[in-house]
Amino acid sequence: MSGAPVLSVVVPVKNEAGNIAPLVAEIEAACAGLAFELIYVDDGSSDGTPAALAAARAGRPWLRVLRHARSGGQSAAVRSGVLAARGAIIATLDGDGQNDPAFIPALLSALETAGPGAGLAQGQRRGRKDGRFKMLQSRIANGVRGRILKDATRDTGCGLKVFRRAVYLRLPYFDALHRFMPALVVREGFAVVHRDVIDRPRLTGTSNYGLFDRLWVGLLDLAGVWWLIRRKRADPQPQEITSPVPAPADQDVGC
Q1: Residue 91 in contact with residue 9, Cβ under 8 Å?
Q2: In Å, what is the CA distance from 73 to each residue of 102, 157, 218?
Q3: 162, 104 contact by CB (below 8 A)
Q4: Which parts of the chain register pLDDT below 50?
Q5: Closest CA to 106 of 88, 127, 91
């Protein structure tokens, strides 16, 4: 790939050694017709993830790897990838293989079709493959969040997202930001479009990031986002003055 990429695909991972090679191959196939780069963010893995990423980089100059010395969480890993990205459009997906990269072009198309007024194309999972308890947790969390924030999004926990990098950088950063992106994107005056995606079982391993399962933390985050939305004021729309500055009038100097 020559020149700057149009799309940067960001994948946060922690202890996902067995999922690296197959998911990289799927992303490569899904984005083959796009000017893209792939950024893996290793969030302090303690297994063979670094070695698997090093092997995956061979022959793939468009694959970049960032590493956190210690785990900062999923939102921190996504943020590191977005800050390092060279593309104006960002796609994210989870590193466990449950998100199918084949839906990235459709989400990208949905965002582009919606025009510059849209900031986010949010995936909405169908056929969830999580256990019943996690699905119940997610359903309750999404229901409570939707009633309070009124973000018109059924499933904010879906890792498949495509958004404008400039819009993301306007959002307030905090842990669990990725779960509140639709409401915060709307807060900034941008539209959110939704597309259904098919959920899959994880390829190997066990989950490293919870699905909003620390309820009290989730409630505190929800209260904080509600407060941010309530405190939002209309942007004043400043305009730069570009007309010539008049020269100062000559002044008489008395003796």
Answers
A1: yes
A2: 25, 14, 14
A3: yes
A4: 211-213, 216
A5: 91
